[in-house]
Design goal:
By secondary structure, this protein is an alpha+beta fold. The protein has helices at about 10-20, 20-30, 35-40, 45-50, 75-90, 100-125, 130-135, 150-160, 170-175, 175-200, 205-225, 250-260, 305-320, 345-350, 360-365, 410-420, 430-435, and strands spanning about 55, 230-235, 245-250, 270, 285, 300-305, 325, 335, 340, 375-385, 390-395, 405-410, 420-425, 440-445. The longest helix is centred in the first third of the chain and has 25 residues, at about 100-125. It comes from Brassicogethes aeneus (Rape pollen beetle).
Length: about 450
């Protein structure tokens, strides 16, 4: 088949057609000076959007959190959910768990997980320039992002501590430079490990080398972020200005003795929705080489229809429990106004073509147009006169500058198009759905879009 080249005649025809339409000229005049997405905003949708909900959790967390220039949304969202029952029990008005604490240990564990994956793929005889190893060596090899099972791994191994006991550092809030250092060393170490495996190095030799390499990795992370204390003491005032003190205590003891009774990560399950015909509903999936803790739990995807995810989200919130979720945040999103609505942009009016929703959700996954990119928290739903959910309230982790002091509003239509994961308590999940977790998961390739990490 002959290739289709663009001739000068083609280009001249395109140009004449463009300038023959006055709307194109108007759109050009505006979009050449203003953000094209802002130009496409629907005034009608802005007028009709109200942050009022029929079912809302009893109390939302304070203060509004801000992950700043880092990809830690999955950590922030998890801790924002966990703090709600914790704050209620301790009768405190403002509280944050230390996001930096979990970030520190995830970064250490993630680097070790990567080095072990390099060994595993070398023993599989995967070529260094093959798709799998090339993917592992890509720019996201120590991504800040993560998924629910990964947060569970870190909490169960290292526990939790208040933010006051391990505050933010520069590299917590702006992780790019630290990550650049780590990526450079990890690629260097990957070469050394692959050479050792190819030479027939024993397990003992490989383990010794990884421990030596990880000593340097630990030093880099510790220099950039500080090292969390093995024990801490937490002092606080409750709502009645009564003084309390907890500790000295280890972070694991703190989680087990003071947090777990109010939010037990082992009682929460992550359900996903992947509508691709190749991935059946009612099946368990995992992704090759995805994780953060060697010996920790795998990322397991219990694939269910999106309507079930929305229903369980509604039941949880109506019962007073907030919901962690993962979505593709950037599509049909009016960022400043904090509106996630499939009708919030009228691209067809401005450009003469539509975008972002022209492909089905399944086809967007197939063609690289969609994946989970961000994690946040649902704190309210609104039901119409027939009891059908039509919008949801979202707690983000980008500070107070967007939406209603940091809270976003999402339509149920948007939920169905761009939400991929929710985490709810087991008590809300039907027994047949829970049984899916007992299956041997089908392994998806490392580059599958369902393995994308929320940032």
């Amino acid at each position: 088949m002959a290739e289709t080249a663009l001739s000068l005649e083609n280009l001249e025809k395109f140009k004449k057609e463009f300038y023959s339409n006055d709307k194109n000229v108007l759109a050009q005049n505006v979009c050449s000076r203003v953000d094209p997405f802002d130009v496409s905003l629907s005034r009608k949708v802005l007028e009709e959007t109200q942050h009022v909900f029929s079912n809302k959790i009893e109390s939302e967390g304070k203060p509004m959190t801000n992950q700043k220039s880092s990809g830690r949304c999955w950590i922030f969202a998890a801790l924002n959910v966990i703090r709600l029952p914790f704050m209620k029990h301790h009768q405190i008005e403002d509280f944050e768990f230390s996001q930096g604490y979990l970030f520190f240990w995830d970064k250490i564990e993630r680097c070790n997980f990567f080095l072990n994956n390099i060994v595993k793929t070398a023993r599989r005889a995967e070529p260094v320039d093959g798709r799998l190893v090339s993917f592992l060596l890509s720019s996201d090899l120590v991504s800040d992002g993560g998924q629910w099972d990964m947060i569970v791994n870190v909490i169960k191994k290292y526990g939790l501590m208040p933010k006051k006991n391990f505050p933010e550092s520069f590299s917590c809030e702006s992780s790019m430079r630290m990550n650049a250092i780590l990526k450079s060393k990890l690629r260097e170490y990957a070469k050394i490990l692959r050479e050792l495996v190819c030479k027939g190095g024993s397990d003992a030799d490989v383990n010794a080398l990884i421990k030596e390499q990880m000593s340097n990795i630990y030093r880099i992370v510790a220099i950039c972020m500080g090292i969390p204390s093995e024990k801490f003491t937490w002092n606080y005032y409750d709502k009645n200005k009564v003084y309390h003190t907890v500790g000295p205590i280890t972070p694991v003891e703190f989680y087990e003795e003071h947090v777990k009774a109010h939010f037990n990560v082992d009682e929460k399950v992550c359900l996903v929705t992947d509508p691709r015909p190749t991935n059946e509903y009612g099946k368990a999936y995992t992704v090759d080489c995805l994780g953060n803790v060697v010996g920790g739990r795998n990322c397991i995807y219990n694939n269910q229809p999106v309507d079930l995810l929305l229903d369980l989200t509604s039941k949880s919130i109506s019962d007073g429990e907030a919901v962690w979720f993962g979505c593709e945040v950037s599509k049909r999103f009016a960022s400043k106004q904090g509106i996630q609505d499939c009708k919030v942009h009228d691209f067809n009016l401005v450009f003469g073509v539509d975008i972002q929703t022209t492909l089905s959700k399944a086809d967007r996954l197939y063609y690289g147009e969609s994946s989970m990119t961000h994690a946040m928290v649902f704190t309210a739903v609104n039901k119409d006169e027939n009891g059908v959910v039509n919008k949801l309230r979202v707690e983000n982790s980008w500070g107070e500058d967007r939406g209603e002091k940091g809270y976003l509003i999402m339509t149920s239509e948007w939920f169905k198009e761009f939400t991929f994961e929710v985490v709810v308590d087991k008590k809300y999940v039907p027994e047949d759905v829970l049984k899916v977790f007992q299956q041997d998961p089908i392994v998806l390739p490392a580059w599958d879009p369902m393995g994308t990490l929320a940032q």
